[in-house]
Fold this protein.
Amino acid sequence: MNPIISFTTEPELLIEEEETVSLLNFNLSEPPPATGIVVNINAPNLSEFDLTKTQVEGGEITLEPELQQQLNDALDGTRVEDVPGAAVAIVSPFGSWFGASGVANLENNTPLQPDDRFQIGSITKTFVATTVMQLVEEGKLSLEDTLTTWLPESITADIPSAEEITLEQLLQHTSGVADYVDVLFTQAATNPGVFLTDWQPEELIDFIDGVEPLFAPGESWQYSNTNFILAGLIVEAATGNNIADEIRTRILEPLNLENTFFAEEEEIPGGYVSGYWDFNQDGTLDNITSANLSWTWATGAMVSNTEDLDTFARSLFKGELLEPETLNKMLDTTPAIDNNNYSSYGLGVGTIESPNRFWYIHRGQTLGYRSNMWYAPEDDLTYIELINGFSDDNLVRDLFPPFRQGIADDNFNFTITEQDAQISLPVANDGEIEGEETATFTVEAGEGYEVESDASSGTFTIVDSLLEPPAPLPNVALGAFPNRIAEDEDNLLTLFFEINDLPQDGLYVYIDSETPQSLSQFDLNQAVVNGGESLIVNPDLSGFAIKLFADDASIEIPLIADEIEEGIIDITYELKTRDEISEEDLTAIETVDFVSDYIINPQMVGETITVFDTFFVIEPEIPVKPEPIFGSLEADIIEVSGSGGLIFGGDSDDLIDASISSTGSNRIYAGSGDDTAILGISDRVVGGEGADKFFATSGGDNILTGGAGADQFWIATAETPDSANIITDFTSGEDVLGIAGLGIGFDDLSISQQDDNTLIAANNSDLAILEGIVAESLIVDNFAFG
C-alpha cells in the first residue's frame, strides 16, 4: 500500500505588512523510501510569497521535469560553433538546475556531464581575495601593507611606486600596475611556446619591467592580472605556505569542495574537460588543454565545477567565510572604468546590475575556457556558467527567462525525504494596496502515494495590513460636444466620460444642469448609451443618474426640433457628487441611494451647451470647439489636424495618424477593432477592444490606454520622443513594448522604479512610463525589437 499524505497549512491569516510566515505541513502515514516521494503542489497565487526566504525541512523543492527539459533545450540551442561544451547551474531556494550540453572532448566525442571540471580563469581571484581577507581578520596582513612591506627588492625594484602600492589597491585594481598578460600575449603571437613554459610567479612580474604604470596608485581603476600575482606572493610571504595550500586549508576543505584544485600546484585526479580555441585563426578549433597554467598562477590557475562554485559563492556572500565587517569591506566597490565586464569592483569581486536584479560576480577566461560566477543577494540566486571554448555572449540571456517563468508558475514539486516535512514561505510585502486576497495550496494526487481526502489543501487569507486602507475613489471627468447646437439642424448632443479606477461592477454618476426642464429639449427616448445603462431622469428634468461600465463611456441624445421660438438657451451640465446633490433631488430622484462615491476631475467638471432655434440668430461670436470626427463601420484612415480635436474611430480596423498635421491636445477614441494609432504630442489616446498598435514619434507626452486585447506599444520608432509617453494599462504577458530603428536590445535599456510606476529609457532619453508596473517584473519577453 502506498503512503498516505496528510497536508495542512497555518496560520489562516497572513499580513503583508508583517511578512507573516506561512507553514505547509506534510505528514506521511509511513516513512518514505530512500529516494523520497515527489509530490506536486498546485499554488495559483505563488507570486504572493517571498520565495527567496523559503525554508524547507524534511525534503527538497525541485523543478518540474518539463521546466528542466525546457532549460536543457535552451542550453543546447544557445551554444555557438566555437563552444564544444557548456555546463550551467541555476540555484535558487525554489528549485535548482544543473545542466550540460555538448562534449568534454572533441577528439573522443565524450558527452559533457553537469559535474565535469573546467578551468575557471579569473574566478581564482575571488578565492585569493577571500584568503587575503581571512588573513586580515587574523591580523597577519593589513590592507594598508605595501609591496615593500612583504616582497623583496628583487621584485619591487622594477615596479614604480612599490612603496606606495597597498594590498587593498592590488585586490581592487587601483594600483596602476601594468598588466603582464598584455606583454605575454604579444610575445605569444610569434612564440606560442610561452604557454607551455613552467613559469615562476617572479618571472611573470618581469614581463612588466620597464612598462610604464597605468596611473599613480589609487588615482583610477584598471583591471590588471599583475595585481593578483603580487597578492599571491604576499600571501606566501606572510604565511610561509604555498598559496594553493592556504586556499585549500581555508576554503576548499571547510566547504568540502572536492572538485576544486589549484592547477600546477596540486595533482588533479581525473583531470578536467579539454579546452578549445582557434589559436591559428584558420577556422579549426585547436585542443590547447596542454597549456601550462603556471602562466596565470594566482590570477587564474584554478579548476572547478558548477556545484563547487555555487557552494563557494553562497558561502562567501552569505557570510560563512568572513566576518560581516570584513565581508562588507570586500564588497565595498569602486566604479569599473571603461570595462564591459563589471559595473563596479570591490576586493576580488565585481558587480553588475541587470534590469531584474543586482549581482555580485566574477568572470574568468583562459586559453580555451570561459567562466561566470554570479550571485544575486536579494533573490538568493546563483548562476554558474562554464564553457570549453570561446564566446562573447553569456548564455544567461537565453536561460533565465524560462527559469524565471518556471519558478513563478502555479505548480512546484516537493521531494519528501522524512515522514514529517515542512515548507516555510513568508508572504511578500509588495507595498501595494490590493485588499483581501486568498492563496490556496493543494497536494495533487500522484504516483507512489495517496492523499488524504479531507487533508489535501489549505487556504490562506492575505491582507495588506490589519488596518486595510480604503480603495482609491474613481476619478470622473465630463465633457460635451458640440457646445453650440441648433434645432433646425439634425443635431446630436454627445456627453462623454473619462474614468480612472473604475470599479469592476460599474459606477453610478449624477449629472445636473440646475435648470428645470432642460432635458425636455432632447429626445431622451432616442438616447444611445455607449458603455453604460439607460438614463434615470429626475422629476424636474434638470438632470439624471446613469451607471457606467466603461472608462470612456458616452451618451448621444438627439435635439428636438420643435416649432416654439425660445431664442438662445444656455444649459450647463455638471457632474455632482453625493454630497452636492440638492435636497429636492435627494427626495425626488429614486436612484440617489445608489449614486456611487467618486471624485470629479476639476478640469472637466462639465460643459455649457448653447441651444438655438436656428443658426440664423445673430449673436456675439464665441470661440467654437473643433467638430468631432467620427469613423464609419468600415476600416477608416483618419488624419488628425489642428489641436483639441475629438476623434472617434469606428468598429473596424482603423488607422488614426496624429503625427503629421496635428499640434496636439486631442482626445482619440479608436473604438473596437485592431486599430493603429500614430502618436503626435500631448494627446489622450484610448484603444478600446482589440489588438491595437501605438507608434510613438518625436512628439511624446501622450497618455495611452490600450484597452482590452493584446496591444503593441511601440515606444520608439527610428527616433526617440521628446518626452516619455504614459501607458496606463500595460499587461505583462499580453501586451508588448516595441522599439525599432534604434539599433538597441534589451540589455541597452534602463528600467527603473519611480514610485508605483516604471520608467523605460535608452540612450539617455525617456521613452515610456508604465503606470502601476514593478520594474523588476519586466523581462526580455515583454519587448520586441526591430
